[in-house]
């Protein structure tokens, strides 16, 4: 499972990149998943280190992640499915096959933001304080996550 990546205007070399990071019990673990995990952890660590400046504690960060991450994954998948409805409308059984690829960051951000908004209203926590603390971590995660796209041989530019 290799990708050929080239930068014609920058290098005259073609890079062969293996998408598989390692293998566990006969299952391939892809670089994309490893890098996205690192991205989420970096954002979480950032949020936990900065949260007291915004009037909340590390337990609230963990609580928020436990709500937000599943919602973001579902939202990212739903957004992708909607954008690729020509295929998924004809193959509805493939909608849940997230392991075959297909996430869209926009859907993850939308679902995550809605989830955080609802949780903050229920727990009576100021949404804007959490948003102010979380956004730099989300931007950091996005920057790290782009390397996952590179390892997949997608969305890396000219």
Describe, in short, the structure shown.
With 158 residues, the chain is of the alpha+beta class. It has helices at 31-50, 58-83, 85-90, 105-123, 127-151, and strands at 2-6, 14-18, 20-24, 27-30.
Q: Strand order across the biggest sheet? A: 1-2
Largest sheet: 2 strands, antiparallel
Distance between the termini: 22 Å
Count of distinct strands: 4
Number of helices: 5
State Rg.
18 Å
**Helical proportion?**
55-70%
What layout of secondary structure does this protein have?
Layout: E1 2-6, E2 14-18, E3 20-24, E4 27-30, H1 31-50, H2 58-83, H3 85-90, H4 105-123, H5 127-151
Antiparallel strand pairs: 1-2, 3-4
Helix pairs in contact: 1-2, 1-5, 2-4
Features:
two-stranded antiparallel sheet; two-stranded antiparallel ribbon; 158 residues; alpha+beta
Characterise this structure.
This protein is an alpha+beta fold and 158 residues long. It has five helices and four strands, in the order E-E-E-E-H-H-H-H-H. It has helices at 31-50, 58-83, 85-90, 105-123, 127-151; strands spanning 2-6, 14-18, 20-24, 27-30. The strands form two sheets. Strands 1-2 form a two-stranded antiparallel sheet. A hairpin with a 2-residue loop joins strand 3 and strand 4.
């Amino acid at each position: 499972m290799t990708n050929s990546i080239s930068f014609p205007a920058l290098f005259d070399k073609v890079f062969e990149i293996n998408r598989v990071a390692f293998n566990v019990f006969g299952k391939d673990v892809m670089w994309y998943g490893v890098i996205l995990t690192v991205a989420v952890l970096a954002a979480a660590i950032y949020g936990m280190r900065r949260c007291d400046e915004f009037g909340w504690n590390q337990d609230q960060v963990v609580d928020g992640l436990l709500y937000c991450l599943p919602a973001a994954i579902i939202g990212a998948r739903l957004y992708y499915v909607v954008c690729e409805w020509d295929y998924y409308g004809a193959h509805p059984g493939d909608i849940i096959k997230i392991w075959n690829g297909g996430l869209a960051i926009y859907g993850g951000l939308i679902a995550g933001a809605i989830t955080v908004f609802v949780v903050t209203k229920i727990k009576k926590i100021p949404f804007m304080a959490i948003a102010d603390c979380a956004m730099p971590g989300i931007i950091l995660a996005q920057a790290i996550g782009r390397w996952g796209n590179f390892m997949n041989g997608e969305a890396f530019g000219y």
